[in-house]
Each structure stands twice: as C-alpha cells, then as structure tokens.
Design a protein that fits this description.
Length: 321
C-alpha cells in the first residue's frame, strides 16, 4: 500500500512538472529508454538561474546509469552547475529516475548546450551492464535579443565652469606681463641693432646730422633745459671731428681740444676761430649758468649744421682723399 502511494505521488509529480515545463527535449534515441529534459522557462534567462529536470525511464528489472554530467564540460555556456538526484522509483512496468539541475548562465556565451553523454543499462538484480547508448545533444533556447535603443539621451550633462584659483590667476598675469616685457625688450634690441647698423653705414657727416635731428626732436630749449641742450650739441661737433680727423675731442677740455685742432694741418684759422667762439659760448651756458634766448639757440643750430655740411663737402672734394 505504501509503495503504491509513493508511485502515485511520483507519477503525479512528473506529470505536473511536464505539464508546467515551458521547454522539453528528448535526449534518448531509444524508444524503450526514454530520457526527457524539461525546462521551467522557455528560454535561458541571464537574470536568474536556470532550473531543469532530466527524467529517465527504463523497463522493469533494469536501471539507467548516467555519467557525472558536471565533468568534462558537459554543460556549455554555464558558470555554475548543481545537481539534485532522487531515488529511483520502480513500478510493475518500469523504473523512473529524476535528476534536477540548477545552472547559472554566462552572459555573452556563444551557445547554451548539453553535450552528448553515454548511458549504461544495468540489470537491476546483478548490476551488470546489459546495454549502452549515447544521448543526443541538446541546444537550449538562447536569451532573447535586446531591442535596439532609440530616442535621445535622458541625461544631457553640461560642462560645469570651474573658476581658476587665485594662485593660477596670478601665474597667468605674471606670464602675460613677462611675455609683454620680453616682446618689448626684443623690439628695443632689434631697433637698437638696426639703428647701429644704419649708423655704421653712414658717413661722419650723415651721422652727425642724424644726431642733430634727434636732438632737435627732444625740444630741450622749449622745456628750459638749455644746459642739457648745449652739452649734447657740443658733443655732436666733437664726435664728428673725432670720426673725421681722429682727434680725441670728446675726452678733452675746450682748451685741449682747441690746441689739438690748431696743430692739425686740415683746420684753417677761420674754422678754428669759429669753433673757439662756439665752444666757449657753450661753456658759459653749461658751467657759468649764462642765459640764452631762442635766437642764440637757433644761431648755434645753424652754425653746427653749416660747419658739418661745409666741412664734409671740403673733405669729399677732389685732392683731399
């Protein structure tokens, strides 16, 4: 009575499980040894473990023996495999065995498959092998493909402005000022070099007249700087004589300069007298503080310009070279 009740419960459980199974596959090629795989889901689901049952039936007085399906990578596409085996149930007509499995799918696997395995048919009394066969491979339904993502981004991040630190601002200001100073120094150096090259190519007279033009552009007499004006204009005359005749005029006093000029054969008495009047009048303004009006300034400018132009023409005249 108890054995009959157990058989009925097993048959009822198997029948209900098969009825609720969403996917079923037949593993055995032998009709007298049916082996059925039942899966609770219709496909493999990546978000949960897969539960399935393998039910094997054998004629009376025989049993089916499976190998260890956890070995040799029988389950392909699963990262974890656990089995739960129940005791075989024998009836007057057959022996039924159930093997329950819990499998964890691997995301991105090429396939989810149960490879073929060998099944041995054993005599229930002696335990000897009376037959054997191989099961068919089972390719489980793969997970459904994801629907393509459409529409715009739900989140549209915008760049956030981060104000620079005070130290960083100070560094950038220092860099800018340094760059401006460097450019200014470079421009000044290039201008100075360009002017020196131009002066080097000038004759003594052209250079003296250029210095005179730069002096007049300063407008020193208009600002009350008569002493500075006469110092610079006398230096122009002295430098011209030094470049033209080799007399170290800028480093000599007025008397020493006039003495050197008198001993030079290229200076006439009229030129010497004119230079002496011009230099002594300038000394009165530079050292004695004597006054001078605009007419005197204009006369000094005209005298220097006339002397340089006249002397340069005399030097360039035939017979003086």
């Amino acid at each position: 009575m108890c054995r009959l009740l157990t058989t009925l419960i097993l048959l009822l459980t198997v029948g209900v499980h098969n009825a609720l199974a969403a996917y079923t596959a037949q593993l055995s090629p032998r009709k007298n040894y049916p082996i059925t795989l039942n899966m609770a889901d219709d496909t493999v689901r990546l978000n949960r473990d897969l539960l399935l049952t393998i039910t094997a039936e054998a004629p009376v007085n025989t049993t089916l023996q499976f190998p260890d399906l956890r070995a040799q990578n029988r389950w392909q596409g699963f990262s974890r495999v656990e089995d739960f085996t129940t005791q075989p149930i024998q009836t007057a007509e057959k022996t039924t065995s159930q093997y329950r499995w819990k499998l964890t799918p691997q995301p991105g696997a090429e396939r989810y498959r149960l490879a073929p395995f060998a099944v041995q048919v054993l005599d229930a009394t002696t335990g000897q092998v009376v037959d054997s066969f191989a099961t068919q491979p089972v390719l489980l339904p793969p997970p459904p493909s994801r629907e393509p993502v459409t529409g715009a981004y739900q989140i549209d991040p915008q760049p956030a402005y981060i104000s620079p630190a005070p130290r960083e601002i100070a560094l950038w200001i220092a860099y800018v000022l340094g760059g401006v100073l460097l450019v200014a120094l470079l421009i000044y150096a290039l201008t100075h070099i360009k002017r020196k090259i131009r002066e080097y190519r000038m004759t003594p007279a052209e250079r003296a007249l250029d210095e005179l033009a730069r002096l007049l552009a300063k407008q020193l007499p208009d600002h009350g700087l008569l002493k500075d004006f006469y110092i610079e204009i006398t230096h122009i005359v002295r430098r011209y004589i030094e470049r033209t005749y080799g007399i170290r005029a800028p480093n000599q006093t007025t008397d020493e300069f006039l003495a050197a000029v008198r001993s030079h054969p290229r200076f006439t008495s009229a030129v010497i007298s004119s230079l002496a009047d011009f230099l002594r009048h300038a000394d009165l303004i530079k050292f004695a503080g004597a006054g001078a009006n605009s007419a005197a300034v204009e006369a000094a400018i005209a005298s220097v310009k006339t002397y340089i132009e006249t002397d340069s023409h005399k030097e360039n005249a035939p017979g003086n070279n």
